[in-house]
């Protein structure tokens, strides 16, 4: 069995010191591909450089470029124009636009940032719309962040009908919401949410969804797994806070996979194979990628 972490912020400083060891661990666990979304203009270069350094190494690292709704403060159309130019220049290297999206909690807290709720939505929607447009023009998939925003995201995705769709990252929600995205060609990023037994609605949805619509992700170093599934050593390193261990790491893909396999009816091999071919389908099947890999 082979695995891909479809969403990991591997350029985060939390990983810098231990990156070689971490990648060696990934290799041992057959986590052979890590997809790294960008979050703001501040990390574009880091993400591109990280991926370049690891191109065709045992672990392939694939970069994405995009601006996350959490990091829009102070950003204007100038930044979107710069992003457009950088994407055009990096077209043969990046595999998606991301992470982009809409976040209802950010909008609700807008006053803390000196904005109204309405202005925050407008700002977020402008950036989301603009970046979907880049994806359409460049024929790239998107990696979509959602939080309290399914109803606002859906009309955008319906309008753009992206050919390569993309991933609804860190999916949590109902079966109906999931099927809405799947009908538009999207895959759902399955991460630490399913390790929390309280996430009943999401777990029940993932149990019933077509296997062809799921991919694995950690979102590391964010989104720690539930303590319910960690072993004693892992728990003591978190509770004691003795080490500088990041709260989450790409090696947790295996734990998430095991939880998914326990939820699903299919056998583990079949699940792992299908998850990998889902990744192939979104990111590596088009002529664009084949030609870029050769060049
Ligand atoms: Zn993320």
TrEMBL record:
It comes from the Bacteria. It holds the Pfam family TatD_DNase. PANTHER family: D-AMINOACYL-TRNA DEACYLASE, HYDROLASE. It comes from Colwellia echini. This is TatD family deoxyribonuclease. SUPFAM superfamilies: Metallo-dependent hydrolases (SSF51556). Belongs to the metallo-dependent hydrolases superfamily. TatD-type hydrolase family. Keywords: Hydrolase. InterPro entries: DNase_TatD-rel_CS (IPR018228), Metal_Hydrolase (IPR032466), TatD-like (IPR001130). The keyword Hydrolase applies.
């Amino acid at each position: 069995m082979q695995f891909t972490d479809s969403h990991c912020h591997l350029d985060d400083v939390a990983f810098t010191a231990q990156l070689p060891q971490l990648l060696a661990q990934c290799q041992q666990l057959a986590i052979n591909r890590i997809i790294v979304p960008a979050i703001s203009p501040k990390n574009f270069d880091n993400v591109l450089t990280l991926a370049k350094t690891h191109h065709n190494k045992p672990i392939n690292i694939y970069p994405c470029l995009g601006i996350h709704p959490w990091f829009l403060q102070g950003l204007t159309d100038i930044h979107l124009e710069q992003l457009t130019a950088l994407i055009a220049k990096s077209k043969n290297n990046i595999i998606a636009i991301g992470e982009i999206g809409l976040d209802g909690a950010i909008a609700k807290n807008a006053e803390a940032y000196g904005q109204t709720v309405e202005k925050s939505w407008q700002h977020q929607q402008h950036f989301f719309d603009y970046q979907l447009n880049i994806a359409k023009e460049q024929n790239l998939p998107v990696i979509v962040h959602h939080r309290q925003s399914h109803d606002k995201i859906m009309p955008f995705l319906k309008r753009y009908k992206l050919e390569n769709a993309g991933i609804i990252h860190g999916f949590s929600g109902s079966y109906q919401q999931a099927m809405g995205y799947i009908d538009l060609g999207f895959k759902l990023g399955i991460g630490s949410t399913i390790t929390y037994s309280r996430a009943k609605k999401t777990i029940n949805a993932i149990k019933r969804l077509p296997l062809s619509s799921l991919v694995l992700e950690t979102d590391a170093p964010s989104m720690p797994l539930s303590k319910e599934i960690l072993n004693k050593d892992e728990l003591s390193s978190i509770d004691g806070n003795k080490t500088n261990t990041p709260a989450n790491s790409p090696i947790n893909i295996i734990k998430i996979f095991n939880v998914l396999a326990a939820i699903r009816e299919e056998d583990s091999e079949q699940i792992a194979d299908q998850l990998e071919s889902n990744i192939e389908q979104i990111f590596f099947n088009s002529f664009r990628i084949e030609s870029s890999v050769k060049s």
